[in-house]
Task: structure prediction
Amino acid sequence: MSDTRAVPRHLAVIMDGNGRWAEQRRRPRIIGHRAGARAVQRCLEFCLERGVEVLTLYAFSSENWGRPAEEVGGLMKLFAGTLEREAEEMHRRGICLRFIGDRSRFSAALQAKMQAAEALTRGNTRMTLAIAASYGGRQDLAMAARQLAEQVAQGQLRPEEIDEARLGQHTALADLPPPDLMIRTGGDLRISNFLLWQLAYAELWFTPQLWPDFDRDTLQQAFDDFAARQRRFGLTPAQLAPAPQGHSQV
Ligand code: IPE
Ligand code: IPE
Ligand code: MG
Result:
């Protein structure tokens, strides 16, 4: 039975396992990150085919800045090179690219590339690709709180007007549907400070597969599992079931 609900509108991915993939091959960790960039292409391709509207990829966390300088430097070079190479291609494919996270920590040159890629692809509507880089969920919430506090300080907002909806409006990706499905590769069962607010009702799916090995079969398996789940959002199964024909209640 074909089921169009099956496809998540918004897929969020924690792309983990690059370092271990390289270590298994006795290669430097950066080799794993490069292989990870190729897995991004496979994932993107699949999502475009399936009509996923938003793909959010966790590329670099606020905590990842604490890694050895050599690895951080290698990752920055990889980001810059990938952006340089792929921005035009993303644009050609109708993808709207955006970045979430504290970009002030990136070099001026990289910030300029990010901004240029966003400006180039702003009008595209086929898919939004959000890259979480220098991103932390706690920082995202702290910034939202700060913005509301500024409004209160300026007399534009009363504290009692602050509610979930208003706080949510100031978090990253607020203009997009929240993630329906969150996938983490690499075998660890945790969120690692990813979209803490936005994932409140996402379905979570984990695989031991390392990110550079991530392929269509794995993604299909995740989508199949997602399609088989019942999302209840706090309600009972009976509330969600369509009322049987001719009966108001069973
Ligand atoms: C994820 O892979 C990519 C980044 C965090 C940049 P890791 O580098 O964390 O890979 P493992 O978890 O050490 O294998
Ligand atoms: C999460 O992976 C961050 C990204 C994939 C970008 P980590 O490898 O940094 O997560 P922890 O530290 O193992 O939780
Ligand atoms: Mg890791």
